[in-house]
Amino acid sequence: MSDTPKSSSEKHIETIMEHLQPGTERYEVLDRAKRFKSSWVELGEKLLDVSKRAHFREWGYGSFEEYCVQEIRIKRGTAEKLTMAYRFMEKEEPQLIDRREELKPLPDYRSIDLLRQAKEEKGFTEEEYGDLRKRVVEEDRSHPTVLKKFKEVAALREEVNPLAPLKAGISAARRLDSALRAMERAPAVYLEQVSEMIAHLEQELEASSVASEDEAGSIRAI
User: Which end of the chain is more exposed for a tag (fewer CB within 10 A), N or C?
Assistant: First the structure.
């Protein structure tokens, strides 16, 4: 048995767990939050489900953020990175999820989120993305090392790819839409405005992409 003193967050979580039936959904999320360092994938999976199904309302919380902060003691930003990293890994690296028991520790969830940003927002080339993925998945580089490389490439991408900021805006708008829909009483007017914003940005991206392709074709013709 470990002699490492328990943190206040661990004690807080264990106190809540004492009053819950083992095996219930709420108990399982708390149990995974306790084992966060070694099992972020499991926690990310559970949090994604809690957010989608709005379980937090059944447990007496008015929002997903309130639940994360007050019950499992993680910040909204951390919860967002966890859920988005899990969703990305489920889509792009399902073999890692399947092998999570033998791959301990798993790649840092923050590094996985950088891979997501590189692929979905920053316009990394296949070669640049492949190099970053190798550092995260195959070489198990530390997060600070991965972050440094990500920033170097992202800075170059933003200089040569005018669509990168637009893609980042769409991603941010989608996160806002998801957060609003997780609220119990999100004003309908806000939801409508965000949906319109997303549609407008997507149209701008499509138009800009076509214009960029036309311009590239003209240059090649010359």
Answer: N
Separation CA 136–CA 111 (nearest Å): 7
pTM of the entire predicted model: 0.64
Helices (H), 18-93: 25-34, 40-53, 55-58, 64-70, 76-92
- In tens, the pLDDT along 128-154 reads 999 999 999 989 899 999 999 999 998
**Per-residue pLDDT at 38:** 54
Q: Is 121 helix (H, G, I), strand (E, B) or coil?
A: coil
- Is it true that the peptide bond before 107 is cis, omega within 30 degrees of 0? no
Amino acid at position 208, single letter? S
The 8 Å CB, 24+ separation contacts for 31-37 are 33/72, 33/73, 33/74, 34/10, 36/74, 37/105
User: Quick check: 133 and 96 in contact, CB under 8 A?
Assistant: no
Torsion angle (degrees, nearest 10) of CA 106, 107, 109, 112: -140
Question: Average pLDDT, stretch 168-180?
Answer: 83
